[in-house]
Amino acid sequence: MQVGSHPGKWRMKIRGIRDALWRTIEAVPAKHTLQMAAALSYYFVISLFPALLLVSAILAYLPGANPFDQVLSLMSGFVPRESIDLLRKVLATVVTPNRSTLLSFGILGTLWTASGGFAAAIEALDIAYEVEEARPFWVTRPLAVALTLLVGVLLLVALVVMIVGPQFGTWLALRTNLSWLFAEAWPYIHWTIAVVFTVLAVESLYFLAPNVKQRFWATLPGAMLAVGCWIGLSYTLGYYFRSFAHFNKTYGAMGAVIALMVWLYWTSFFMLVGAELNCQLAKETRKGKIKQDEDPSGLTGLDLAA
């Protein structure tokens, strides 16, 4: 009886995942996810350039010739080429040779602005998780700054791993006692590390941003869905922009900005869809019952950690 019960349990789990996926699709129009993604893309555009300014200042301390230019070249595979050119032009006007001044300005002057996108993401994720925001401004805004730093560091690690490239394994193996197997496997390892840290960045956002209590690993399905769809769609959009869409002919000088906002729009959309999937999976675990919990500070939050 015990052995025979396992197939039934697996069928129930598969049915539960299927139902959660279906409810996630139904929730997209019901919760106006497309409209929320459009609003988020606006806030992310406002926050993007201060964030890139800070990243460029940090990357300036890494060895190599212009590592930030290598980041932009890497992004050109899935970000519209016109947008990459726009980023280069904007950053060229604000980046100065004095790295210490730039870094201090980046930390003190742009971190607050860069966190604006995450402040908007907190509100959007509350809607995705179907919970009201009961935390005061002096809690949510510092949280947005902390998320900017945390997610930024995780994504920066992913970028650095991609910058060193597939030849880094051979370079490291020649200078250490590592086996040649490491050098052979590194081209696959460095992609794995980049994807893992990207998923961890999205997971951290799902875990900390919304006003919910949940297990960290419970956010993994939505993070994997969001990152997988984002990577696939980014390369698809990149190919479309390079081969078919010519925004400069339609929008003139604004073409690069429009292309960037389209990319940020779909990035925001899949981030919200991943959060919606986590919410629906938590409901499935709870059999549709979501418990409103109250923490010692008196602030209410959704409890999905059963």
Short description:
By secondary structure, the protein is mainly α. The chain has 12 helices and 3 strands; from the N terminus they run αααααααααβαααββ. The longest helix has 31 residues, at 255-285.
Give the overall silhouette. globular
Q: What's the end-to-end separation, in Å? A: 27 Å
Total helices: the number is 12
Beta fraction: under 5%
Overall strand count:
3
Radius of gyration: 21 Å
Helix/strand/pairing category: mainly alpha
What's the main sheet like?
A: 3 strands, mixed
Mean pLDDT comes to: 78
How does this model look, in words?
It is a single chain. With 306 residues, this protein is mainly alpha-helical. It has one domain (22-292). It contains 12 helices and 3 strands, in the order H-H-H-H-H-H-H-H-H-E-H-H-H-E-E. It has helices at residues 5-30, 33-59, 67-75, 81-94, 99-114, 116-128, 137-164, 168-175, 180-208, 220-243, 247-251, 255-285; strands spanning 212-213, 291-294, 300-303. It has a 3-stranded mixed β-sheet with strand order 1-3-2, with no helix packed on it. The relative contact order is 0.14.
Comma- or semicolon-separated keywords:
single chain; 306 residues; mainly alpha; three-stranded mixed sheet; 3% strand; globular
List the helices and strands and how they pair.
Elements: H1 5-30, H2 33-59, H3 67-75, H4 81-94, H5 99-114, H6 116-128, H7 137-164, H8 168-175, H9 180-208, E1 212-213, H10 220-243, H11 247-251, H12 255-285, E2 291-294, E3 300-303
Parallel strand pairs: 1-3
Antiparallel strand pairs: 2-3
